Amino acid sequence: MFPRIVYESFRRQARRKLLAGIAITLGVAVATAMIAVATDIGDKINRELRSYGANLVVTPQEDTLDVEVGGVNLKPPSDGAFLNEADLPKIRGTFWHHNIVGFSPMLPVTVKVGSSAKDVTLLGTYFDKALHFGKEDFTTGVRITNPWWKVSCGDGKQSPNCTWPADDSQNVLLGERLAAQLGKQPGDSIDVSGRQLTISGILSTGGGEDNQIIAPLALAQQILGKPGAVRRVYVSALTKPPDALSIRDPKTMTPEVYDRWYCSPYVESIAYQLQEVIPHSHAEQIRQVAQNEGTVLSRIKGLMLLITFAALFASALAVSAAMATAIYERRVEVGLMKALGAGNLSVSALFFAEALLLALVGGVAGFSAGALLARQIGRSIFNSQISIEPVLFPIIIALAVFVTFAGSAAAIRRAVKFDPVFALRGEG
Amino acid sequence: MTINMSSMTDTLLTPQQVAGRRALSPHTSMFARMLLRAAVLRRRRAASALLAMIVAAAVATAMMNLYVDVQAKLRTEFRSYGANVIVVGKDGQALPSDALARVESVLGAKSLAVPFSYAVARTKDGQSVVVVGTDFARARQLDHWWNVNHWPAPQILAYLVDHPTSTPAIPSEALVGVRAAAVVTPNRQPFDLTFQGKTIYLTAAGMLQTGAGEDSRIYLDQSEFQSWTGVAPSTIEVAANGTPAEVDASIRQLAQLMPMADIRPVRQIMEGEANVLNKTRATLYASATLVVLTSALCVLATLIGWVFDRRRDFAIMKALGASERLVNGFFAAEAAALGIVGAILGFFIGIGVAAWIGRVNFHAPVVPRFSVFPYILAGSVAVALISAILPIVLLRRVQPAIILRGE
User: Fold this and answer.
1) Distance between CA B377 and CA B383 in Å, rounded?
2) What is the ipTM, given to two decimal places?
3) Are both B243 and B293 inside the same structural domain?
4) How far is A258 from chain B, CA to nearest CA, in Å?
5) Domain for residue B368, yes or no?
6) The pLDDT of residue B25 is above 70
7) What pLDDT does residue A297 have?
8) Domain boundary among B215, B235, B266
9) Cα dihedral across residues A264, A265, A266, A269: positive or negative
10) Is residue B22 a part of any domain in this protein?
11) B251 close to A (CB below 8 A)
């Protein structure tokens, strides 16, 4: 009998059930989307923060001092130690290699341009170099690590003729200030320490590179006469904000703590791992970038968490309001059931069974809609997927059932207390 | 239940009592009295409708306030990344001595400007090292990320010698980068630096670690640096607050005021900030829209139920000969009143919530924006009217007799 009453109630009052179902579906969808966005926002913003550039730098262990003012390198070219370019792909072999977004080697060389006596710094680097480590093929370079570097034809004009040079070419980029000083255009050739190089574009960075010539690393090594030499490597990695554990010295840790430290993507532990894979190197965090990420990240995460609470609160309220309305409208029905001898318990059981059914159906529909919504948000804002953890599904369904029950409870209590005589007489 | 009881007590009043009641409110019109009595008699349902309205208005207010204010708050956070504008003398020239004062006059109190001057000095064994003159108090504010174990004392008496052979007893305090320290003062001993034949006697008051170029440099107080080398500041690093448009305007203003200097934005900082901020703003916008829509839905569900529930009132009014216009006007007025009261109460609660979120998350209160109030008010009234009109339209087709018969 009981299942039939429930079934008939859904069949005969399809419109009312639909309204309550829509409210539950929408509420659950918003809750799901917000939870998904809030749990993923840290990851997404962390990735966006990489647009500030590298947060780690690897230098030779026995390096001499850098002598550089305003982008002009005053250090004698053969002075100091170098890293070996052949070691660089090993960066992909570190424990946290999935967190390493990219790296760029740098080799500054002091050169003479044309017949002028003035020293100019030529910086050798990777632009978009194809490398492979083990079975993995990947590309890396300044186009990934330094997204604020812009190549144009000068004065910000874009043209297909002004492009990044290929990593195996003899083409170079000219910093915009240097280009203005020398009066050179893209397509011109430039005499650098006796070599004729073609200018493929004008580089604007807003930093010291505006006064430099940027060349493929191999070319810089040829000019310096040191094949395979790299002065330093900038590494851009996704890191976990610093906490009490991250700043401890690994030498003083117990083995368990050390394992935990080593297996957390702190900027310190990634630096430590970089030193392990690159021989005779010293890796250090670039504090300007690394130290500020944490604050920005925690602010944005905190904000999203609070907004998610607001969203959950609003959807819970919407679901309860819809349920209360749906039940309140059915007092006559309750009166009839009670007049026919139904007890408070069986009337409540009927309503709760209906609410459960609604919550389950609405919950499943809402979860799917919310997942789609989260994906849409991820794609349109971050250009990447926001993945929904499968573990979220039972939580969301439980939440939907709980909120629906909580929203119905007060209304059901009032409905069963209602005197059947008044209800049947139509005095609602 | 309560509704029924109160309507019954109403009918049990003696004619004198009824007359007495009426005498108490002789000046209120029938229309106003109907509105008031409807709210008082069905106070439970009215309260729940009002509550939904308040919550929706509060949530919408908090979201709008946050959306506007959070961007300013985040911009302040982003200033911890340091300078976003840099002023350098053209072709490596020194800036005029009043450059700092001019920069500050343009940017105002909220921004921070730090002068830097550079020279390449030599150690005793001929090693080149970059020495920088700056204002420590300002640099400390601008460059939060500098890891310094001890900042040099603000100003101690500079003791200079023209003869590199004799060294004074009291060395000047310097901030030494960790890599420079390994070269110039491996045992933390005071050391000499020579620039164009002039020698300065220094001690490492503190160590500086940044992971960047600063590690290879030695920092001195500007006045000390200048009396030693004679080099005036060639660079001013500026942390300018505000939107990209405001920063651009400042840059243009500075360029006009100081034609002898190059003023350029630090693209790394400006673009990183713009990127993260845009993404955050878009996410916030999407979330706020979802939350506001959900609360509007909540109001709609509650109010439709409330009005639908009162189809008997509607039928009685019509049966007693009320015109369509009067009935519609009555329900519309009721909804509008609910919307207005809900919007006012919700607005203040929402401002409180926004302020609380600002305090918890940004450690600074969100400034209440009264400019959003008209939007909240209009939105609340609109939602209330829609949810009142919708059931009325449905009921209009039904004969009053059918409703009164309880079907």
Assistant:
1) 10
2) 0.83
3) no
4) 23
5) yes
6) no
7) 87
8) B266
9) positive
10) no
11) no
